[in-house]
UniProtKB/TrEMBL annotation:
Protein name from the UniProt record: Aminotransferase DegT
Signal sequence extent: none
Residue positions, PTM N6-(pyridoxal phosphate)lysine: 185
GO biological process, one term: polysaccharide biosynthetic process
GO MF assignments: pyridoxal phosphate binding; transaminase activity
Pfam families: DegT_DnrJ_EryC1 (PF01041)
Entry keyword set: Aminotransferase, Pyridoxal phosphate, Transferase
Organism expressing this protein natively: Pseudomonas chlororaphis
Source organism phylogeny: Bacteria, Pseudomonadati, Pseudomonadota, Gammaproteobacteria, Pseudomonadales
Length: 379
């Protein structure tokens, strides 16, 4: 057992100025959606090249609402990755459409676009790419493919706020873009999400969907013309987001430095010596939300990841895993998915782990994490 303090996989950092801002909201008497939400949306819009942005209470409802705005429903197919949080596929079911999975690239662990094109049918209406760990896939190829087949794109950028593609921020262009502000994200609101939209009409429709479909006019005019829900962000959450977002460039740069140090500490012979696969060494596009390894299979047939996580935990280092293959969860097996359909995703999903990566980490923490990984794998 380690005598050092436990090193968690993730830990939010909330500064005193943000705590004071939340206290100010609580004392104001206006704690639901209000001026802080409007200010947060304005800052996000500026960050995304002036595109309309609307905030919500999660990064899940943002995706469901985007699909509804796009008119996707029963009889339609939406292609996505098996390696994501299950919400990415669940929202497709929520609107009555059919999720279709495509296998992933073994290096980037994002969607393999050749597999996506092979999965397109006359019923395909959209693609939901996921930027795993904050690393975008090839956006040029993605949108060329979407335009070729007349498909909408909903970028699941839950982990990718602050990431970029060829020098342009994720969210600054494209189609729908969904961000998450859940507790372990690079920028958190404790819980929350944002949807980047294409025009004012889509933004107005998003506002309806997030608050019961209501449209107000004058002092007492009220109408409902779409079936909405209760998805609005509170000023309390927005105050946290504003405090975090003020430091996004610094936070992203720090994570990139931590990632560089991970690679330095693992060394050039790590993969050949230990049999584990490092992530792509991308220090310009990725925001390094996660630093992930794909473990080697155990020779004795025991579950490699569970054993690895247990032994890391015993040594005082927290480990996460992101994610088990969606198509092998019971809800999706019941819909006809089974083992062997997406072999790369199944191998990665069985062996992937996420090492400690958070704002308050130091290079000493990285060195401790790497040393513990090597010790456990050696044993």
């Amino acid at each position: 057992m380690s005598q050092l303090p436990f090193l968690p996989f993730s830990k939010p950092t909330i500064d005193e100025a943000t705590i004071a801002s939340v206290s100010e909201v609580l004392r104001s008497g206006w704690i639901t959606s209000g001026p802080k939400v409007q200010a947060f949306e304005a800052q996000l819009s500026e960050f995304c090249a002036g595109r309309p942005v609307r905030t919500f209470n999660s990064g899940t409802c943002t995706m469901e609402i985007a699909l509804r705005i796009a008119g996707i429903g029963p009889g339609d197919e939406v292609i996505t990755t098996p390696i994501s949080w299950v919400a990415t596929a669940n929202v497709i079911l929520e609107v009555g459409a059919t999720p279709v999975f495509a296998d992933i690239d073994p290096i980037t662990r994002n969607l393999d676009l050749a597999q996506v094109e092979a999965a397109i049918t006359p019923r395909t209406k959209a693609i939901i790419p996921v930027f795993l760990a904050g690393l975008p896939l090839d956006m040029t190829r993605l949108y060329a493919l979407a335009h070729k087949h007349g498909l909408r794109v909903l970028e699941d950028a839950a982990q990718a706020l602050g990431s970029s593609w060829n020098g342009e921020r994720i969210g600054a262009s494209g189609d729908f873009v969904s961000f998450s502000f859940q507790a372990n994200k690079n920028v958190t609101c404790s819980e929350g999400g944002a949807l980047v939209l294409n025009n004012a009409e889509e933004a107005r429709l998003a506002e309806k969907y997030r608050l019961q479909g209501v449209t107000r006019s004058g002092f007492d005019g009220l109408d409902v013309d779409v079936l909405g829900g209760k998805f609005n962000m509170t000023d309390i959450a927005a105050a946290i987001g504003l405090g975090q977002f003020a430091h996004i460039e610094t936070l992203t740069a720090h994570r990139r430095e931590l990632a560089r140090h991970y690679f330095e500490c693992f060394g050039s012979d790590f993969e050949s010596r230990y049999g584990a696969q490092l992530p792509p060494a991308d220090f310009s596009n990725s925001n390094w939300h996660l630093f992930q390894l794909v473990l080697p299979e155990r020779q004795d047939g025991l579950p490699a990841r569970a054993t690895f996580m247990e032994r890391m935990q015993e040594r005082g280092v927290g480990i996460g895993y992101h994610y088990p293959p969606i198509h092998l969860l019971s809800l999706y097996r019941e819909r006809g998915f089974k083992d062997g359909m997406f072999p790369v995703a199944e191998r990665v999903g069985r062996l992937i782990v996420s090492l400690p990566m958070f704002t308050a980490m130091t290079k000493d923490d990285v060195e401790r994490s790497v040393a513990t990984v090597k010790e456990v794998l050696q044993r």
